[in-house]
Amino acid sequence: MPLLLGAHMSVNGGLHSAFERGSSVSCTTMQLFTKNANQWKSAPLSETDIQTYKRAEAKARIEPVVAHASYLINLCASNKGTLHLSRTAFIDELQRCESLGIPALIFHPGSHTGQGEEAGLKLIAESLNKVHEKTRGCRTLSTLETTAGQGTNLGYRFEQLRAIIDLVDEQDRMAVCMDTCHLFAAGYPIHTEQGWEQTLREIDQVIGLHRLVAIHVNDSKKGLGSKVDRHEHIGKGQIGLTAFKMLMNDSRLAAVPKILETEKSEDMHEDVENMAVLRSLLGPQKALA
């Protein structure tokens, strides 16, 4: 099985341009935005946009490609106007992914903004049920991302993601994305071999590893349990290399795309360097059963 390793790629110049960028740094998988992540609305995709994207995808042979939803979306917003905008935007993003053949749309569960965690989790599930009702037949998975728990953000414990999934009617449309920086900041001790194994067993027991469709591979500027979401380059943060060695050699995760979300300059040399570090960690450690 080929190593599924890549990074988030810019779509400046059109969605298809992400493939040229990804190929230039040897991505075998990647993540992108299907629209401006800082705007509620975007022009609909034309048939030309879709076909140009698909031709570029076929030529590049980078797959799977996953999408990340707009940062504006909050499916448990206390403000009714924001909640409506969030649901409408999420419907649009699912439909965009479906038209492009993107299998997973990754999103931050939401911020309860003072309503309380239980109320927030219920509202996220309610939002997803409404979104799914409007997107019947959509094959793109609604993919909850683990969070650092900063502020009133939900999704920083596996149990919270499980609670959302349990309240969603169409549970076969739900998946999960694990972020290493977020896990560490939320208090999961992935920086040690024992802590890594403990965390993987826990996510399997609580959610199920079969739901894991992507991993965001990021070191952390802040310490264990800080609840502060600040990505750092691989091996240069507080997590250290042990977690990433475990990740790269864990047979349970071999088929899961591993995607960098670290800061980079226009020439993307940071992606090249980070992926080189990750590849260097492969073997001779025995893959975990």
Short description:
With 289 residues, the chain is α/β, with parallel strands linked by helices. It has helices spanning 17-24, 47-60, 80-100, 117-134, 158-167, 180-186, 193-206, 241-249, 269-280, and strands at residues 5-8, 29-32, 65-68, 104-107, 110-111, 141-145, 153-154, 174-179, 212-217, 219-220, 231-232, 258-260. It is 39% helix and 15% strand.
Structure explained in plain terms:
- The chain has 289 residues and is of the alpha/beta class.
- It has a single domain, classed as TIM Barrel (Alpha-Beta Barrel), CATH 3.20.20.150.
- Helices cover 39% and strands 15% of the residues.
- The protein is built from 9 helices and 12 strands.
- The strands form 3 sheets. It has an 8-stranded parallel beta barrel with strand order 1-2-3-4-6-8-9-12. It has a two-stranded antiparallel ribbon with strand order 5-7. The chain has a two-stranded antiparallel ribbon with strand order 10-11.
- β2, α2 (47-60) and β3 (65-68) form a beta-alpha-beta unit.
- α1 runs parallel beside α2 (47-60), α3 packs across α4 and α4 (117-134) packs across α5 (158-167).
- The radius of gyration is 18 Å and the shape is globular.
